[in-house]
Sequence to fold (579 residues):
Amino acid sequence: MTTGPIFASPFVEKAPLRAWITRFVLTGLALSFLFLFLGLPLVTVFLQALQKGVSVYLSALWQPDARAAVRLTVTVAAIAVPLNLLFGLAASWLIARFDFAGKSILMTLIDLPFSVSPVISGLIYVLLFGLQGVFGPWLFEHDIQIIFAVPGIVLATVFVTFPFVARELIPVMQQIGSEEEEAALLMGANGLQMFFRITLPNIKWGLLYGVILCNARAMGEFGAVSVVSGHIRGKTNTIPLHVEILYNEYNFAAAFAVASILTLLALATLTAKSVVEWRSAHSDGIASNVPLPTVAEDTHHEH
Amino acid sequence: MSLKRRTVLPGFGLAGGFTLLYLCLIVLIPLGALFLKASTLTWGAFLEIVTAPRVVASYKLSIETASAGAAINVVFGFLVAWVLVRYPFPGRRIVDAMVDLPFALPTAVAGIALTSLYAPNGWLGRYLDPLGIKVAFAPLGIIFALTFIGLPFVVRTVQPVLEEIDREIEDAAASLGATPWQTFRRVLLPSLIPPLLAGFAMALARGLGEYGSVVFISGNMPMKTEIAPLLIMTKLEQFDYAGATALGVVMLVMSFALLLLINVLQWWTGLRVVRG
Fold:
C-alpha cells in the first residue's frame, strides 16, 4: 500500500522537527510559569528566613511566643483532625454502603465548607458564640469563653477541614465495593471485626491521604482562625497568626523563619501525598485501580 | 424502614446519626446563624449596607481579580497539564507533585513570600518597578496571589481528562490530513472545554473568598485594593456585626451559585469523557 505522494512528502519530513520544536517550547513555557509562580515563592521563604544568619533563624524559632504558637497549632490539629477522621469514616460508610433518599444533597452539604470563604467560616462562630452572638449572653453568665479563645480556634479549624477525610474516603469505598464485608458478616464476623479486619485495611491509603491533607490545612489555616482568635500573643496565636504579627512588625527574618516551618510542613505533606499515591497504585488487590483524587477534582459525585 | 435498601451491612443508624449530628453542629447551625443574624436587618438596611460605595468597590475588585487569576490559570494550567500528560521529561513526577503546593502551603506563607518577591525592592519587583509595573500593593498583586492559589484547580481538573483521551482519534485525524492545530481544535478542544470551564469556576470560587495570600500583597487601600473578605474582617474589628453579616450573606450566595455551576460543569465533563 502506498501513501499519496502529494501530501505525504512534506508531512513526513516537516512534522517531526516541528513537533519537537512545539514540544520544546511548550515544556519550556510551562516550566517557566511554574518556576515563577511556585518555585520562586518557595525559595524566597528559605532565603529570607536565613538572610540574617542561622543564629537569628534559630532564635526566632526558639522565642517563647513562637514555641507557644507551635504548641497551640499542634493542639488544635490534634483535636480537629481526629474529629474529622471519625466523621469521614461515618459519612463515607453511610454514603458508600447504603442507598437512601437525599444522598446527593448530603454529599453537597458535606462539601459546603470548601466553598465558604475562610473569613465567613470564622464569622459564623462569632455570630453564634461571640459576646453579641446567639449564645453569647448565656456563655458570659457561665464564664465560658469560646471566641478569642482556644475552643473558637478549634471550631473554626474543624469547619474548614470538615470535608477532607470524607472526600477521600467516599470514592475509595465506592470503588472497593462491599462484597468482602458482606462475606465476612455471613461467615459470622461482628461489625467491629468486619471494620478492623476488612474495611480499615482496604481503605488505609485513602484514609491516610485524607488525614495528611486535613492536617496540612488544619495547621496552616489563617483566615478563619484569624477571625476567632483575638490574636493574644502566647495564648491564642497559631503559627500562621504568629507569622502575620512578626511580618506586620517588619521583623521579616523572624516572620520567614517561622513561615519556613510551615513551608517544610507543606513540602512534607506533598512528599507524603506522593508516597501514598505511589503505594496505593502499587499495592496489590482492588485498591490498585482506585484513583486517589485531589481536592480539586474530587467534587465529582457521579461516577 | 423504606428509606434504605435492605442489606446485611451494619451501622446505618450509627453512621447516619453521627454524620447528621456532626454536620448540623459544625456546618448547618453555624451557617444558619449567619442567615438568622441577617434576618434581623430590615431589607432597606441590608440594601444600604451592601450597596455602599466601598462595599461595591470591594465586590467589584474581588470579582475582577478572581476572574483574571482564573483566566490566567485556564491558559497556563492547561499548558502545565498538557506538558505533564503529553511530554515526559526528567523530573516530571516532582513537578507534578509540586503543582499541589498551593493546596499544601498555608496561605499566609504564600502571601508574605509573594509580597517580598514583588515589593518595589524585591527580587522581581526591583525590575518591574522601573518599568512602571506595580505588582505589590496594586490590583496586579492580588491577581498574582489568586493565580498562585487557583493553579491546582485547573491543572487537576484538566489532567485526568487529557489522560483519558484516546490518542488513536488524533492519529486518525492526522492521517486524514489534519494539521496538528486542526486536530487540536476540532478533536481535542471540544472534550477539554467542560473541564477547563469547571477549573475556571473552581479557581474563581476559591479566589473570591481567598483572604490569607491576598491581604499581605494587596496593601488594603479602601476603594482601591480592598477585597470583600478583608472588608468583612475590617467590619468585624469595628464590631459592626450587622455589616459583616450582610456582606457575608452576599458572598455566601455567590459561592453557592458557583458551587451549583461547578456541579453542572462536572456532570458535563463526566458526560464528555464517557462519550470520548
Q: What stands out?
A: Chain A has two domains: 1-49, 53-299. Confidence is low (pLDDT under 50) at residues 1-13, 284-303 of chain A.
